[in-house]
Amino acid sequence: MFAGRHTYAVQKAEERLRREARGGGGGGGGVSEEDQSRMQEVRLTGFAPNAAAEERLGGGGGGGGGHTNVGFHDDPDDHHTSNNLKDNRRHVCVTVGNDAKKCADEDERGCWDWLADRTRRSLTKKVLVKRVPVLGWLPRYNPPTAIADLLAGITVGFTVIPQAIAYANVAGLPPQYGLYSSFMACFVYTIFGSCKDSPIGPTAIMAILTRENLHNIGPQGAVLLCFLTGCVQLIMGVAQLGFLIDFISGPVSVGFTSAAAIIIATSQVKDLLGLNYAASDFIHAWNQIALHIKDTQPWDALLGLSCMAILLLLRKVKDINVGPVDTKDKTSTQRRLEALLWFISTSRNILVVVVCALMAYMFEQHGAVPFALSGEIKPGLPSFQSPPFSIDNGERTVGFLELCSSLGSAIIVLPLLSLVENISLAKVFSEGKTIDATQEMLALGLCNFLSSFFGSMPVSGALSRGAVNNASGVQTTFGGIYTGIIVILSLQYFTPCFYYIPKASLAAVIIAAVVFMVEFHVVKPIWRTNKMDLIPAAATFLSCLLYRLELGIVIGIGINVLFLLYASARPTMHVEKHRSEWGGEYLIITPDRSLAFPSVEYVRNVVSKVGVKQGSSSIPVVIDSRHVQCADFTAAKGVSGLIDDFVKRNQPLLFYNLKPTVVEVFKAVQPVKFLHCQTETELYDLLKAYTTKSPAIMSSQTNGRGSKS
Predict the structure, then answer these.
(1) Where are the compositionally biased (Gly residues) regions (predicted)?
(2) How far apart are CA 426 and CA 436, in angstroms?
(3) Which residues pair with 93 in a beta bridge?
(4) Which end of the chain is more exposed for a tag (fewer CB within 10 A), N or C?
């Protein structure tokens, strides 16, 4: 900020000095070379020498009435800066003409003017379109695009309603909270989202993570978690921390997703079979299932298993080919029939739920309902209110900090996983386009932040609904507007109908959706490519199942980081023995990466052993450094020690292909007999000199165009 203020002030001063120089008249007025020199120093440093503090540099000439004063004064606000610099420099102030007061005014306003200038630069059309993507496609929006978005939005709306109710059950929340989470994010993402196929709303992974981290806080805790998730994502987006997602590797993601799918399916077995028990984790849930399996309700089990079978069959209906394989040869009737099959397949969730609800209603009209029903769902839209920063649990008021402590690592882990889920979805349908992770962070952060004011749980992009959106031919993110409207209409007018939805049918919807998230099919490709990748995948999978989801993914990331550190600490060293045309032998050792502090001792030991065993402690050793892009202080000290080892046994050690920056790093520790060269000619000259002379001479001479430092 300090430097920015001075830069801005100096720029203004230079402009005035130039104007004075141009208008100085015939008297030779203007800016002298001395003035220009001082201005150059000010421009580079933001300060001027103390000796100039008392000077007044005059400009102007006989023909001009104006003059320029350049003065320097101490700034009490920056006194600590002068003390730190310890050179008694002073703050620059420039005045033009006779109005010295302008100097002080400009100095005071410099900070704000600089900020305003930076703000104006950032508010360009290009930046606005990048950060508010709707500004890019809305001017080109046309009726065909609007119709495509309308059809896609309605289709996704029919898909999200049963899923939202079911995901609320997964999260351990009342059903209406799933619907509360399904409309505001659609509207926000329409404006700020960059992926047209990504429908933002409740997802299975967000639901199970919410359930695991609420710790009996209840719906208010879920809303607060949504708010905090949005805040963290916005901070990450502003700080451009999208690279953090790159630390979640494919195997870790596979292990996490597969474990989450199994945990979600396990949580739905209770409703699928009509059981009644409470479970705290995956192992406990299966213990409870084993204990209560004898209490299975036949009607619930029959309905649930039947719904699962129907959903899995309907999923394949869209792949049925009607008529000729070539679309151009199909009749209009065949194309309509294919479109009907596709609609039935993509709308299978809502169709199954509606049919089951009608069955339950008919049973009730005839006296009794044999299924467990969803029950009352609070009708109407949620009220707009701030997230709960304190909760009254009946005994006492739990404050904000205590709530955050209870939510624990979920405040950080859940935003990251939400971003991973959404960006993974965006990449699937990107069609080769690059994904702006920062923009997705900002968009998803705004979705969670604003949705929390409408009673939402954490949201993200759902892959299943994204596939429906893409297959429906969505053209822009405007399709989310129609999806949100359908959810609002269902909340306003159709919640009484949701009373009759059997819990078993919702459990079937969830299980049929998450079963395809278990990615056991990738084990074989991972085994073929890199067997070591199975370790973080298996560790993540087992940790998620046996402990907690967020702990499992942290363990997986930790193992991956250890692999990266190990690879950095143990570079591959290629060793080759050559015989030159003049008969001399020499060794070439090529490390495959840069030298950093974890690898220094390893490289030193390997080179020393090779020099002793394969080089017989006498023939020259050449370190081909073509892959060494950088080095640090520890590496420089290690190289210096390595050179000392070779000098003690009178064995030549040469560095070939070193980058100039690395040479400077090595020279900084002043090694003895640091021999390095850049070209093959220089290398051969050095080798020839050392392989044709006696060891005594070799220890004291260098030749050719090589460098000795």
Answers:
(1) 58-68
(2) 10
(3) 71
(4) N
